[in-house]
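User: For my dataset I need records formatted as: sequence, then structure tokens, nothing else. Please produce one.
Assistant:
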Amino acid sequence: MVDSPRPDLSRPWQLLAFGFGSGLAPRAPGTAGTLAAVPCYLMLAQLPVPLYLAVLVASFALGLWVCGRTAQELGVHDHGGIVWDEFVGFWLTMLAAPPGWGWIVVGFLLFRLFDILKPFPINYFDRHIKGGLGIMLDDALAGSFAWLGLQLLVLALQAQS
């Protein structure tokens, strides 16, 4: 984030876009943002799945505006410190996940893997869609891939027992 404009965390939308400050980590802000999403996930995990899903959809919709406005104000599309998309991507990964820290670690690793590698079609959307939708969509897709991987792992382990 060297030479990147600094956010004004007194603006609520920038505070949220920067993951309550976690996106200001000097190295690997996306990983820091995903780590910061874990305590929120622990609260969300207590919700029934339909309510969890409603919060997830609302968080994505909020992210469209929050991330888009922040990027516009900073003059940088998908500023490295904007990590609200990592929050939502991780929460998507963990939708209906089994309880336990082991599954949180697996979900975290899967999400970071897909978010960093950006296999097709994630890389396509990352390059071609701008604004809040572009910021949010690639992480939602990475979260979807990670969710599928996590659910397949759960099924495989259940089949063995």
